[in-house]
Amino acid sequence: MIARKNLNTRPRQTGSATNAKTSRPKAGTTKSTNGQFRTETDSLGEVQVPADRLWGAQTQRSLEHFGIGLHLIPREMIAAYATLKKGAAIANHAGKRLDDARFRLIVQTCDEILAGQHYDMFPLHIWMTGSGTQFNMNMNEVISNRCCQLAGTPLGSKTPVHPNDHVNMSQSSNDSFPSAMNIAAAVNVKEQLIPAVTALRDAIAAKAEEWKDVVKIGRTHMQDATPLTYGQEWSGYVGVLTDNLDRIEYALKGVYRLALGAQPLALASMPHRDSGKRPLLKLPSSQTCRSLVHPTSSRCRVRTMIWWRSPARSGRWQCRSTRSPMTSD
């Protein structure tokens, strides 16, 4: 009798907000631990949010209406989005759109998230509204409420840092979510995939050298062929992996191009839409972000698509691609 295969397997999710075996949020993540709630508001009205959680109204609505399945947003996206929000704050502060106090609070909170804190404040599932809007707002609300804690103001007061006006600052989820995906992909390819493939290639190269004098019979289908050494045979695998590493590095060139600022509809109401010389995102040179630096360059250059209306062309949209250098923290 053939045993039935167990199909109830789930991929492991990393991060402190999930159970490694089930990918469910840890016990108590989505509920108030003290039975108390606070009232937060959004454009749809009032929402009851657990008093000891850093998320806000839109995250709570997503939990209530899109609590589908067991799989959470990949934990890698949390660090990627924190990197993006920090980079946007640096650019907005440099452009005089964000004052010093709010800038410092946002950057401090993003650094805490990048250090692995507050991961249990991101409980949303992968099944949600299109374009990742709720996860973008989850990040905005957590940053805003953590800034409230640091400033000594009540959670949900949105003072001194507002999740929309100061953290998001006219970003569209259609731009920021794909940008965060690119950052997550680039960081994990540079920090995990490439080192793993390189280690495998080097281990095989060592064996090829060790077996360079071990002769074997070559094979052509079912027949004996010209003799060769095991070292020669395994050197072919070394060449394949070396070629694959080159392909990965080449593919990353496209991943380094971020979509933030590439949507004319999202930029129509931006206060700095007519300032084509100002970058919309400057990636901080933190440890998480250094992996985005191209190996042939000591500084990362971010491509930004700037859209604006041209009065000389009857208000038609125009686009210009710029590259802005990485800035220091």
Give your account of this protein's structure.
Strand 3 (215-220) and strand 4 (223-229) form a beta hairpin. The protein contains 8 helices and 6 strands; from the N terminus they run ββααααααββααββ. The radius of gyration is 25 Å and the shape is elongated. It is of the alpha+beta class and 329 residues long. The chain folds into 3 domains: 37-169, Fumarase/aspartase (N-terminal domain) (Fumarase C, Chain B, domain 1), CATH 1.10.275; 183-255; 264-325, no CATH class. It is 41% helix and 14% strand. Strands 1-2 form a two-stranded antiparallel sheet. It has a two-stranded antiparallel sheet with strand order 3-4. Strands 5-6 form a two-stranded antiparallel sheet. It has helices spanning 57-65, 76-94, 100-114, 133-151, 163-168, 173-210, 230-255, 264-267; strands at residues 37-42, 45-50, 215-220, 223-229, 301-310, 316-325.
What can be said about the biggest beta sheet? 2 strands, antiparallel
> Secondary-structure element order, as H and E?
EEHHHHHHEEHHEE
| CATH fold topology of the largest domain | Fumarase C, Chain B, domain 1
Report the top-level CATH class of the largest domain.
Mainly Alpha
What is the total number of structural domains? 3
Q: How far apart are the termini?
A: 63 Å
Large-scale geometry: elongated
Mean pLDDT: 79
Give the strand content. 5-15%
Q: If you compute it from the alpha carbons, what radius of gyration comes out, rounded to the nearest whole angstrom?
A: 25 Å
Order the strands across the largest sheet as they lie in space. 1-2
CATH superfamily of the largest domain: Fumarase/aspartase (N-terminal domain)
Q: Tell me which CATH architecture of the largest domain applies here.
A: Orthogonal Bundle
SS class: alpha+beta
Number of strands: 6
